[in-house]
From TrEMBL:
Coiled coil: none annotated. Residues 1-22 form the signal peptide. Gene3D superfamilies: Di-copper center containing domain from catechol oxidase (1.10.1280.10). The lineage of its organism: Eukaryota, Fungi, Dikarya, Ascomycota, Pezizomycotina. It comes from the Eukaryota. This is Tyrosinase copper-binding domain-containing protein. Keywords: Metal-binding, Oxidoreductase, Signal.
Length: 367
């Protein structure tokens, strides 16, 4: 106990020292307290239900983002979609992408735990395990422990799946999610086109209230090319951060190859392909769990040279003029959390983070 007779300055110094000590000790990550992020199909029925219930809890809670900043927000879940949409032109296909999304999904996991009682760790989607047949994946099988099945059939969505002059064979959905816990899920923001990704700033109406349902068009023709084990292995084999980033987003015009990051977005359909409002679909967080997983795996192969490796600018597609990022570049999260540097998120067992993935490179599918 601190003596009440100490001078005020001494009390303040003592308090600060105790606070620093407490923060330091609380931040120690050990094998005893580390959380393990697991692939969705390996979770128990109870673990899956806990995660889904926690998402629905966020979707019921009131938003924290001020209406003047994002008129469309209605729920706590929308806060995350709004932050992603508001930063889209600065966090994709550039030097910030992996770092920003690592912290974004951590903040989401933290909200699920602290505000909705989620007891587990953020799950992920191992792309390769379902690349040849998305509808057979437990994530998309339409059961009550899935994220819903395909969308209702909507022929007008066929034109959305073109890469330059190459058009993918269309899926069997296109409309609102038709089954499962998130059937007919409604979100408050409009959908966006890929042409809007390279805009210099976020569109002025991006966060206006424009309710619609989340759509799906599961497409194994896309996932089989872009999400198979060979693609994952090639990504992990890239020698530099520049090469790793480029292959992850290696959209080659007029071909079926998109790279695993956009490939997963496109394979699920326009609801997830939408660069701005894609977190509207709860599958977003499983997909980006895998994105973070492969980055962590790539870093772990040579932590001395890869943990703090950065390359690129703070603009989507590295469009100039833009600033080249450094490891101390400060990332913004609007009303979700205080700014944080890329250095602060460079490892999964430092600072606020204490987690690892259960992923074993090349492990066969369990289903």
């Amino acid at each position: 106990m601190v003596s009440a007779s100490l001078p005020l300055r001494a009390l303040w110094v003592t308090f600060c020292a105790l606070s620093v000590f407490a923060a330091t000790t609380a931040a120690i990550c050990t094998e005893e307290n580390i959380e393990v992020r697991k692939e969705w199909s390996t979770l128990t029925t109870e673990e899956k239900a806990d995660y889904i219930d926690s998402i629905k809890c966020l979707q019921r809670k009131p938003a924290m983002t001020p209406k003047e900043a994002a008129p469309g927000v209605r729920t706590r879940y929308d806060d995350f979609t709004a932050a992603h949409a508001n930063n889209t032109v600065r966090i994709h296909a550039n030097g910030v992408f992996f770092s920003w999304h690592r912290h974004f999904i951590y903040l989401y996991e933290k909200a699920l735990k602290e505000e909705c009682g989620f007891k587990g760790a953020l799950p992920y989607w191992n792309w390769a395990w379902s690349s040849d047949n998305l509808t057979a994946n437990p994530i998309f099988d339409g059961s009550e422990t899935s994220f819903g099945g395909d969308g209702a059939y909507n022929a007008s969505e066929a034109l959305a799946m073109s890469n330059g002059n190459y058009t993918f064979p269309r899926g069997n959905g296109g409309g609102c999610i038709a089954s499962g816990p998130f059937a007919n899920l409604t979100v408050p923001f409009r959908s966006f086109t890929n042409d809007e990704l390279s805009l210099p700033e976020t569109p002025t109406n991006a966060l206006d209230y424009a309710p619609r349902c989340v759509t799906r068009d599961l497409n194994s023709a896309i996932s089989s090319v872009n999400l198979n084990q060979s693609v994952v292995d090639t990504l992990l084999a890239q020698p530099t951060i520049k090469d790793f980033q480029a292959y992850a987003d290696n959209l080659i015009p007029d071909t079926p190859f998109l790279g695993p990051h956009p490939g997963a977005h496109w394979a699920v359909g326009w609801g997830l392909e939408d660069n701005y409002a894609s977190p509207s679909d709860p599958v977003f967080y499983l997909h980006h769990g895998m994105v973070d997983n492969v980055w962590a795996q790539w870093q772990s192969k040579d932590m001395e040279n890869r943990q703090f490796a950065v390359y690129g600018t703070n603009r989507t597609l590295n469009i100039l003029p833009a600033a080249n990022v450094t490891i101390d570049f400060e990332m913004q999260f609007n009303y979700l959390a205080a700014p944080i540097t890329m250095r602060d998120v460079s490892g999964t067992q430092q600072g606020e983070y204490c987690y690892r993935y259960d992923y074993t490179e090349g492990a066969p599918s369990p289903f």
